[in-house]
Amino acid sequence: MLRFALLLLAAYLLGSLSGSLLLGRLRGVDIRTQGSGNAGGTNAFRTQGWRFALAVVAIDVGKGALAAWLALRVAEPLPRLPVDAQALACGLAAMAGHAWPLFFGFRGGKGAGTLVGALAVAWPLSLAFVLPTWLLMLAGTGYVGLATVLAAGSLVPAALLLPPQGPSARMTFAVVAAVFITFTHRGNLERVRAGTEHRFERARLFRRRGGRDGR
Q1: Exposure of 149 in the CB half-sphere (CA atoms within 13 A)
Q2: Cα–Cα distance between 37 and 189 in angstroms, integer?
Q3: Residue 44: how many CB atoms within 10 A of its CB?
Q4: What are the respective helix, strand and coil percentages of the chain, to the nearest 5?
Q5: Domain boundaries, the chain
Q6: Which residues face 81 on adjacent strands?
Q7: pLDDT tens-place string over residues 39-69
Q8: Which residues, at least 6 apart from 110, have a Cβ–Cβ distance to it below 8 Å?
Q9: Which of 111, 105, 80 lies closest to 11, judged by CA?
Q10: 139 close to 89: Cβ distance less than 8 angstroms
Q11: By CB neighbour count within 10 A (0-12 exposed, 13-18 middle, 19+ buried), where does 55 fall?
Q12: What's the whole-model pTM score?
């Protein structure tokens, strides 16, 4: 149990290494003072360009993957908590570090990229649900935040349909991850409801006839 606790701590600290804030320091900017104020890939793209955003996403996905990989390599099986479940728990810890980074005043991003990295290592089959959901919703609505929330929500049916089926640590992880992403994107959801959320029009492939915004 001590080893698992140390792995969770290490995962949180890895998550606290925010890509946008580390790279922003090299550039002399803090993207939390620009755009939406979020220290994530979408705001990095909007305020600093695609090259900066690509590097940010690589770091944020990479730290989630590294946190899960370390657990798979180092963790020891525990009663009712197998190694793969510990890897998913470490992915959640890395997401928490990303959202509330120790090194940056507990003000970070929303954790979606870090979640994808953890899934790629600890539960790769789930990406067959997550990535198509994200792409379809983005193409249909143009709302990155809404697409991300629904993609995270697709982990629940993934846990129901992918083996092993039935109640499992994966279902617990799926629910917690979906709630986490919904919470960190609550501002996006409020703006979607109010009609003030930024819409990524270039990604919006499916539009109704009769107007650019589908009205």
Answers
A1: 15
A2: 16
A3: 30
A4: 70, 0, 30
A5: 1-122, 125-215
A6: 78
A7: 888 888 888 888 988 999 999 999 999 999 9
A8: 38, 40, 98, 99, 148, 181, 184, 185
A9: 111
A10: no
A11: middle
A12: 0.88
